[in-house]
Amino acid sequence: MIYKHMYCGYSDCRSVELLENDEIITSSAAVYGNMIFVYFESKNEALGINDVAKGNMKPFPDGGLWAEMVEIFHFFTPKNDEEWVRKTENKTPQFRINKIYMDKVASYIYYHQQLQRDNQYNCDKFFSIFLYGNIGIIYGESPVESITWQDIEGRPYTPIRQDWPQLMAEHFVPWEDGRKTWIELENIGK
Prior knowledge:
- By secondary structure, the protein is an alpha+beta fold.
- It has one domain (3-188).
- 15% of the residues lie in helices and 35% in strands.
- The protein has 4 helices and 14 strands.
- The strands form 4 sheets. Strands 6-1-4-3-14 form a 5-stranded antiparallel β-sheet, with no helix packed on it. Strands 7-10-11-8-13 form a 5-stranded antiparallel β-sheet, with helices on one face.
- A hairpin with a 2-residue loop joins strand 10 and strand 11.
- The radius of gyration is 17 Å and the shape is globular.
- The mean pLDDT is 88.
């Protein structure tokens, strides 16, 4: 089984070191302001952020340096480890951020769980959405490895509802420029 994790932390340095570890399948990091996000995959459920990354982090009020984010959506759940293998080498991680109105977080999760459960569509194999409070982070990779539900379940394609972009826009807090779009983050870490 593959375990996916996303952590966030705060630092004035805007950098983090990604550690070498034989149990890490992939790891990457990105920064937004003084927030640092680290994504990693492992077959070891017990592997934690301190096994994957280190940096000059600011402690949270509880003294911890990192907070694990909750995965609320993914397009693909592999039935076995072989289905998760990347077919393309040297993929570029892509992180995007958005802010969700606090009173809309539950609705946002609900619609994504409904989408995950009820629709069959072409999708990005590695795309996931994680939440920390009302901060949403999308993780994906480029080039995209598309997979179809026909490939996965043998079921026909079902389109996503046509009003999806407008429905999601109702959930997002506008940025300073008034837009309610996902903002791409700068990749960091070596």
